[in-house]
Amino acid sequence: MEMSIRRVTWREEQKERLEQLDANSRKQEAEWKEKAIKELEEWYARQDEKLQKTKASNRAAEEAFVNDAEDVFPGTEWERVAQLCDFNPKSSKQAKDVSRMRSVLISLKQAPLVR
After folding, report:
1. What are the pLDDT digits (tens) for 78-88?
2. Do the beta carbons of residue 106 and residue 78 sit within 8 Å?
3. What does the H/E/C string look like for the chain?
4. Residues 12-59: tens digit of each pLDDT
5. N or C: which end of the chain has fewer CB within 10 A?
6. Would the pTM of this model clear 0.85, i.e. be above it?
């Protein structure tokens, strides 16, 4: 009899503990979801801001390129090519190795082909 009473009380206590753990885990999960939603919204805001800045800089660069394209003088082709190329290999963001192309353009700039 005493054993069954202990078992019943133990089961009730265990059930209470499990309910508390479940409630705590639900609460923690809700907090994590809220935090994740906020972080995701912040990330989207940062990405949108970055995109707008990139669009603005691309538009400005395109406008400058178009303005420079209108000022074409014979003999200035290699200077225009050199302006469009990044000859500093460390600042280049490209993943491909373009060192050979860079060296060819530099050599052509220094000694243009004669026709």
Report:
1. 777 777 776 66
2. no
3. CHHHHHHHHHHHHHHHHHHHHHHHHHHHHHHHHHHHHHHHHHHHHHHHHHHHHHHHHHHHHHHHHHHHHHCCCCCCHHHHHHHHCCCCCCCCCCCCCCHHHHHHHHHHHHCCCCC
4. 999 999 999 999 999 999 999 999 999 999 999 999 999 999 999 999
5. C
6. no
Q: Give dist(CA 3, CA 9) in Å, integer.
A: 10
Radius of gyration of the chain from its Cα atoms, rounded to whole angstroms: 34
Angle, in degrees to the nearest 10, between helices 99-110 and 77-84: 150
User: Could you give the CA distance from residue 104 to residue 10 in angstroms, rounded to a whole number?
Assistant: 83
Say which residue the tokens 């860079």 belong to. 102
Amino acid 113 reads L
Do residues 106 and 112 make contact, with C-beta atoms less than 8 angstroms apart? Answer: no
Pair of tokens at residue 51: 């995109």
